[in-house]
Amino acid sequence: MAAWDEPIGYVLRASTAGFSIGCSVHQIDRPAFGSVVKAQPRGSDRASVYGLLYDMHIDDDPMVRQLVLADAVSEETIRDQHHHRIVPVEMSVLSIGYRDIDDHVRHALPPRPPLSLDAVYLCSPEEIKEATERFDYFRLVFANSQVPSEQLLAANLLIAQATLPENERYTYLVRAGREAARLLNGDMLRLDSLLRLIYPS
Questions:
Q1: Average pLDDT for consecutive 10-residue bins of the chain (201 residues)?
Q2: Are 141 and 179 in contact (CB under 8 A)?
Q3: pLDDT (tens digit, 9 = 90+) per residue, 90-113?
Q4: CB atoms inside a 10 Å sphere around CB 150
């Protein structure tokens, strides 16, 4: 089964600007910072919401607080705590678009946020291409002061370009850099930071 066929978690809370995902420890080996994800509604009357994963948050729980004070903790105890953890791992997502009634991904805030317990999936390579082939979502990333925008966008672009044929990747990053330069023409520090992050090594 492909990585994008199973949920990586479920919506905990949401707004039109973004949403938080709750998951277990064993589910965090697939998503990564900058990944394109979608919240998939259960009813056909609500749109799928697309977003960029920008934070993973692991809170402690009462058992962890006790274990960190122990002189030694066995591997078996750690594995058991991971498996039976009573506090979910939280991932935060910035909304960058939604699937409209014409079945296109529209880069705009969704008309409604996802609901609690809607399943969230990693996007397939085809969906990543569809969601990132146009750069209209850059504005939503740059405008949100709650996310590390240059780091997030750079990570996302490197994930997106990896879904393309090798001979198209450099051109894709050049186009992205030009669009970023247009939007950040008054903020050379942010632009320089982004371009350094996506420049091929």
A1: 84 97 84 96 85 90 68 71 74 96 93 95 96 97 96 98 96 97 95 92 65
A2: no
A3: 999 999 999 998 899 999 999 999
A4: 23
Residue 163 region by backbone torsions, left for phi larger than 0, else alpha for psi between -120 and 50, else beta: alpha
Q: In terms of DSSP bridges, do strands 105-106 and 9-15 run parallel, antiparallel, or are they unpaired?
A: unpaired
The Cα–Cα gap between 9 and 89 comes to 9
The three-state secondary structure class of 172 is: helix
Tokens of 81: 């705590």
CA 16 to each of CA 91, 97, 169: distance values in angstroms, whole numbers, following the listed order: 16, 10, 32
Structure tokens of 168? Answer: 């198209």
The burial of 199, by beta-carbon neighbours within 10 Å (0-12 exposed, 13-18 middle, 19 or more buried), is given as exposed
d(CA 162, CA 38): 19
DSSP 62-130: HHHHHHTTSS---HHHHHHHHHT-SS-EEEEEEEEEEE-TTS-EE-S--SSPPPTT-EEEEPPHHHHHH
Contact of 177 with 191, CB cutoff 8 Å: no
